[in-house]
Amino acid sequence: MKKLGLILYWVVKVLLTGTVGIYAVWALTAAVRYWGELQHQNAVSGKLTLLMIIVLLLVTGLGVLLKFRPLPRRWFWPLVAVLGGAALLWQLLLALTTATSISGWDPWAVYNWLANRASLTGQWQNYFSYNPNNLLLLYLYRTVQGVMNLFGRPLSWTGLAVVNAFGIAGAGVLLLLTLSKLFSREAALVGYLLWLLLIGITPWVIVPYTDTFVLLPLAAALYCGVTLIGTAHRRTRLIAGFLLGLFAVISYEMKASAIVFLIAAVPIVLLRLVPWRKAGRQPLLAAGVAVLGLAVGYGGFQAVNAVQPLVTIHRAMATPASHYLMIGAKGTGQFNQSDADHTRSIKNPQQRSASDFHIWEQRIASMGWNGYRRFAAVKMAATTQDGTYSWGEEGGDRFLDREGPRRSGQLAETLQSFVYPFGSRIRYYRQAAQLIWIWFWAIVCLALVGSLFTRRAAIDWLVISLLGSFLFLMLFEAGRTRYMIQFVPLYVLFVGSVWAILPTRGERPVKARKAAAVAAKAQD
Question: Keywords for this entry (predicted)?
Answer without folding.
Answer: Membrane, Transmembrane, Transmembrane helix
